Queue: 4 jobs
Job 1
Amino acid sequence: MKNITITIDVEEDCPPMLTSTRGMEEGLPKLLDLLKKEGIKATFFVTGVMAEQYPDLIRRIPKEGHELGCHGYNHARFDRMKKEEARVALNHAGSVLRKFEKQVVSFRAPNLQFPKSYLELLEEEGFLYDSSIAAYKPPFFRSGGKSKIIRVPATITSSFLRLPPDFFIPLIRRIKAPVIFVHPWEFVDMSELPIRLDCKFNTGENALSNLETLIRTLKTENYLFFTLKERANIEKK
Ligand SMILES: [Zn+2]
């Protein structure tokens, strides 16, 4: 059985380079509409700050059948926090997000940077799955040591999906159970902004149409689209 997981990191536009939120206002509604139209469920890793600022949008996530996950409180990097600060940030973010969905069990750290020695904090704060690593590795493995957290690496970086679909779709097919990730701001035209090239190239309608092409192509190939939580449950059996 072929399966894929689409994850979305919900945050300010291209942090920390920008602090605008056009991705929230313009990109996220379009993305939610696309997933709804295609009948696809995804996992949204949302920062506490975005949930506080855009409650109506965040409400749509669980309401439309998606998984609501946690992306920290304010997109500060966990590898630059002391352990106690990390605990406070996780607790703060968790308590904001759990007002929208009781069961928030999946986590992804900003910049995919989360110290292994902090995994026990995730467990203490009620999380089960961590997708804070990027790697071409087996999709599921125990984190090792005492922690029960299951680590689920993101297999493809987001800018990759803004290359031509004829190029990236064959590569995705070769990955077993890929976990892809995108950001709402990628669906807004960022090309004129003074930010890194990999953040801005092919953003806007092209990025959305690429994602649509990917979803439609894989649907014709009988791929199943799972949220992170769903996949972890299947893998455990
Ligand atoms: Zn992020």
Job 2
Amino acid sequence: MELTVAKTAGFCFGVKRAISITEEALEKYDNVYSVGSIVHNKFVNNGLSEKGLVFVDGIDKVPVGSNVIIRAHGITAKELEDCQKRNLNVIDTTCPHVKRIHDIVKEHSDKGYFIIIIGDEQHPEVVGISGWTNGNFKVINDIQGIDSCNLDKVCVVSQTTMNVEKNELIVNEIKKNAKDCVVFDTICHATEERQKELKTLAKDADYVIVIGDKTSANSNRLYEIAKGICNSQFIENIDELDLNFLTESCKICVMAGASTPKCLIDEVVDKLEQKEV
Ligand code: SF4
């Protein structure tokens, strides 16, 4: 068996930053709340909960005057206003790559551009981005979605974890049809690098194991890419690892999403290394 662990597997800059800011806040304050997940990984969120972080499902559930963490995926302008109205101490872990998109859509929406967001409509990052427009936006995830957009004067941004190739196809089609169009490349490098490395490694592998939370958009993208190239498995942790595919000469590649902690990757790698075929 030959085992390769992707160099880019595991925490990205934005996730490391969000966890570190949250841990500092938990050391400094007693009453720290988070509206939803800090990052899309249950193991990470459970660890923060054990250190005292309280998860609630709305800003209205955060006690007036206490501390609130803004997740790495960011929130809407209205939610930020609600925090201020409740006199909350806002501890913002929004990834700078996501904040940049908020600034772009706000500026262009104010200038009268129709905003097209390429991404998953339900994803918290996309919901947050749309909340910085003046309401003149559309979220699309395929070429067909372009038909329902106003293409007179359009500003295009993408969810940071979009599949690079799919994004390019959609952007090219918008450019062909729009009268006035500005496009911002907002897919983050962490995503691009992972997807690029995975494509190279998967081509040379018999089997790919992607480790990540099922709610993690970038981990799901990695799995989609991997299974398009060779047999693959998407697992959250070692308990889900199915070794039935193993053969003596199997070439395995291990990749992990940007919110997957190193300890979960190490457990899987150790198990594979110890496995006798
Ligand atoms: S994947 Fe990119 S945008 Fe998302 S948190 Fe990480 S660095 Fe930031």
Job 3
Amino acid sequence: MSALDDLVEVDSEHVMQTYGRLPVAFTRGQGTLLWDSDGGRYLDFLSGLAVTSLGHAHPAVAEALADQARTLLHVSNLYYNEHQPRLAARLDSLLGGGGRCFFANSGAEANEGAIKLARRYGQSRSGAERYHVVSAYGSFHGRTLATLAATGQPQKQETFQPLPEGFRQVAYADVDALEAAVDERVAAVLMEAVQGEGGVVPAPPEYLREVRRICDEREALLILDEVQTGLGRTGRWFGFEHSGIRPDVVTMAKALGNGVPIGAMWARHEVAGALRPGDHATTFGGQPLAARAALAVLDVMEAENVPLRAERAGARLATALVALPRVASVRGLGLLLAAELAPGIEAAAVAGHCLAEGLIVNAVTPRALRFAPSLLVSDDEIDEAVAILAGVLEATPLTDPGEVTP
Ligand SMILES: Cc1ncc(COP(=O)(O)O)c(C=O)c1O
């Protein structure tokens, strides 16, 4: 029995089967590369799911983690730790200043905190009635009950009814729909600058400016979910910067720890002040290990100017992808891209063949592949990945050859 077969058997017996896993176990990574349990080499163009933005085993992050592990892993939030306030200050400055952070352990938790903050802030201003959250169809905000209720994908919600009350969805990028939905009961509008899980769909900059206007007019908070888009991935530090708006609340996670679980919620001062001692907490939030890792991540991100690198590498990748036969179009920002395949080609089958050829991408919709490599990816790695995909696309059988454009 191979090492992989053994893992699959133990997993199927002892791990809750909530994921449809592919038959690979990764054991080691370095930069954009991963190796599996049989020694096979892969180009990781997904980075977890947009998590390892500095690549695998980044030496500065590894060193900070090892040093912190030898020094102090955890103290409770009943006390100060030397890294959490410094991390909050760094994030605040990336966000333009004038705000405060709360630390959590994941994207869903960061959003959960933002929803609680919006309710508390709404309450403090207009009594108990202002607690509704409006989000967009196609969005993804997490799997806790409240963030699932905010997630605009009814098929994910059905099995878990009844969900918490006070959540509504409107069509994405439809200003009139939002105008109609935001009334005096709405505490916040929750949006992604690019819908990541929803298919890598960027919000038109004009739409986000209209969302800001509507929130201002109706006195609702604007929460930007930057869990997937934040920290350089789209070619700016935050995805909302493409539209020039300033949100009231910003959530982030994935890239912040480069693989170490950490989430953060930032809010401008006045809003942040709505949460008082005892209102919200989490045992591990902002603990020394995670905060130190995030500080090391930000050091490298700033030194490498990752937004600029993502913009340049993203342009190279997008240009190469759109030139491939059987790629109908490419969308996204920076290094969060999707290639829409020509009719007759299933994205999941292509992703499966890419994996077999040593390239990791995923089917973000039935017809589109997602690309989210390390922001430090090299030109050679991009060229190698595109060459693998080109070969796979050429060899992939069509479900309906008659429809395919050359
Ligand atoms: C935009 C967005 N928000 C929230 C989440 C949930 O984050 P987590 O899986 O860390 O809870 C995700 C995860 O993919 C996401 O893409």
Job 4
Amino acid sequence: MNIPGSITTLLVGIVLTIVSLWYGQNHGLMPVAASTDAPLVDGLFDIMMTIGTGLFLLVQGAIVYSFFKFRRKPGDDTDGPYIEGNIPLEILWTSIPAVIVLGIAVYSFDIYNSMGGLDPMDHSVAHHSQPTHEMANMPGAAIAGTLTDATVDAASATPETPAEIKESVPAMTSAPAEMTVQAAGLQYAWIFTYPDSGVVAGELHVPVGTRINLAISANDVLHAFWVPEYRVKQDAIPGTPTQLSFTPSLVGEYPVICAELCGPYHGAMKTKVIAETPADFNAWIASQQVASAAGLDQAIALTATEKPVDQFLAPFVAPLGVDAATLQQLHSAHAHPSAS
Ligand SMILES: [Cu+2]
């Protein structure tokens, strides 16, 4: 083996390892971790940054070292020595990357699996992991968020974080275990539909602590649903429904970005996910129902055909003290003259 084993090499190796480990934890490249899945992805990213930093320093260090060490001496016009090869060295520099790549493959597959990537329709995964995720991972997520904020984005994020954590803790106890929301991508917007309430919105409101199952569709061309703060992304494919699951862990507003070039205004296809406490979320759902009930277009288009007149008028007359029975009587009395 021609690998030098001097003290200098050992010291350089130790320094290189320490610098790589430090930078892997302090690269500051990730936005705040706002879902329970985010710390998993960040763990993988940190390890890859550690390895990448080590390799970068090793390769660049060897190049810079060689510039000086093997610089042509003045007056030396001879050729360099002929080197046939070095089997042990070649085995070493093949096996080490192979082990690294295999290790990252197994680790990332494990994370993909634990995020439900293998079978997003299998809700038992979410149910089984829910209690442990909430008990064990949620404080971790909050702490991770604090650390990231403090070191990375001190100016903008740190003041919000204590409040976010405070708000997110009681949210755990009363949030539903999971919720399915339809997300339709179209040029150039996202339309979110809440199945139970029928609320339709251009922004995604989610209660913190609830496993959100997005049922993603595309109305025209390829789009992709991406929330960097949640570390999740999924394609929206015309004719092929796709799924995406995540659990918001911090109260706040985060950008939803279309991550698939979908047309000339692709860059403007942005909205936001608004993670709030279950109480705020329920209040928002209620406000949306009132808003849609009060919409005249909706009342004509939907309610006139699907509901009896007294039912769809009820929200309007309630403040006047007219009850549904009275309304029904009034309607019956006037129905015949106007029915023709
Ligand atoms: Cu798009």
